[in-house]
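Handout, section B. The chain below has 282 residues.
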Amino acid sequence: MQIDLTGKVAVVTGGSRGLGRADALALAKAGADVIILDLLVESETEEEREADAGKYGMLTAVMSSQGVVHAEATSKEIREMGRKSIAMKCDVTDRERVFEVFEQIKEEFGPVNILINNAATLDHTLQITDQVFEMWQRDLNVNLTGAFNCVQAAWPQMKEAGWGRVVNMASIAGTNGGFGQASYATTKSGVIGLTKTLALEGARHGITANVVAPGVIRSEAFKLSEQMNSKMTERMIEQTAAKRAGEPDDIANAITFLCSDQAGYITGIVLPVNGGMDLFVF
């Protein structure tokens, strides 16, 4: 199947690394111009980076300190393919900044046709009585309200163009729950409800909205978990029918298909990409 996204303008949030980076590259390979939004970009000052890390928790701090920030490098790689691309610093919880960025994208690249809501936090892993309210609120703000903010900014542009694709990243934790992941699982369940509503409202305007729900994917965050607790990650892999972790490209390939014309009659679905992790495995 040949997927052609030539002439489409795509925005990927959280596109600096991991799944977001893979999504951005896959969309570009299919022909789209890709704008990468991320809280962290290489050219920001050390003071800015430290402030972001302090605001958004351990995982952001670790990725920043280890130099796992590739927003601008990914954008350069996309331009080398012959596509248009830019990396922009954007906190998806900052509504004013989000709307400002999407307006700038429209002026410089044209209307946004494709939105991949990938930005998320996932380091608040405590059982329910130990969950920290401030971290609960942070996860709601980033994972759910952040996606809402970006949709509200992109939606009028998609309606005007009469064509749009929204793909929201959920998780197996959003469909099955997650032990010690009350805030994360709740936000990802909320993303599913948001997406189904978007599918209903967007259908008459040529806009589809779908969810991709990954399982265990070998991203930078997963590799960090392997270093910290290899027994836990091994146990998670054993829960998959495939007996292996997925790769970021497994997610990117699913997303690219959902953004294509070939998927124009698919909307409101939750697509598990998890190697059979939700099956009865023993």
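Note. The domain at 9-273 is CATH 3.40.50.720 (Rossmann fold). Compare this with the example in section A.
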